[in-house]
Amino acid sequence: FLVTMASQNAPGVATMKASGYQLPVSPLMIFTGLLALLLSPFGVYSICIAAITAAICQSPDAHPDPTRRWLAAAAAGVFYLLAGWFGGSITALMVALPVSWVQMLAGLALLSTISGSLYQALTHENERDAAVIAFLVTASGLTLMGIGSAFWGLIAGGIGYAVLTRTRRPSLSG
């Protein structure tokens, strides 16, 4: 559950909020957590707000009208089902392709999301340094105690934000 929270739910929620969507975070976390708890004995242990899927489906590339982007999420769900049914064939295809091609396809799929997220993160001057800290730690690939860089990027960015906003506050004693 903690790995899913750090690697999928937290970045997924952050991505959605950065795009202007207001999510009921607590009910979503309770629902996905309980569903994972109930279904984990059957091998369904990673029910989450998929960060990459959320990033792709919420971008303007999915649909110019934000109220119609749910269609991209529905299509993604259909493709997840197809990927489950044809997983062996898809895996064989991906293994046959050069690694650089697979990485290129993933990068192209996320290009507008990455640029939009970086723009949003770097827009506010008082939050810029913390955003850069979070980005650099996440991009570093750091793994501590078996927990990946997405989690540590959030932690480092949060600490950076707390420290930097505390040191930049104007003094009331004048």
UniProtKB/TrEMBL annotation:
<feature type="transmembrane region" description="Helical">
    <location>
        <begin position="69"/>
        <end position="95"/>
    </location>
</feature>
<keyword id="KW-1133">Transmembrane helix</keyword>
<dbReference type="GO" id="GO:0005886">
    <property type="term" value="C:plasma membrane"/>
</dbReference>
<dbReference type="InterPro" id="IPR004711">
    <property type="entry name" value="Benzoate_Transporter"/>
</dbReference>
<dbReference type="Pfam" id="PF03594">
    <property type="entry name" value="BenE"/>
</dbReference>
<feature type="transmembrane region" description="Helical">
    <location>
        <begin position="131"/>
        <end position="164"/>
    </location>
</feature>
<keyword id="KW-0472">Membrane</keyword>
<feature type="transmembrane region" description="Helical">
    <location>
        <begin position="101"/>
        <end position="119"/>
    </location>
</feature>
<dbReference type="GO" id="GO:0042925">
    <property type="term" value="F:benzoate transmembrane transporter activity"/>
</dbReference>
<keyword id="KW-0812">Transmembrane</keyword>
<protein>
    <submittedName>
        <fullName>Benzoate/H(+) symporter BenE family transporter</fullName>
    </submittedName>
</protein>
<feature type="transmembrane region" description="Helical">
    <location>
        <begin position="28"/>
        <end position="57"/>
    </location>
</feature>
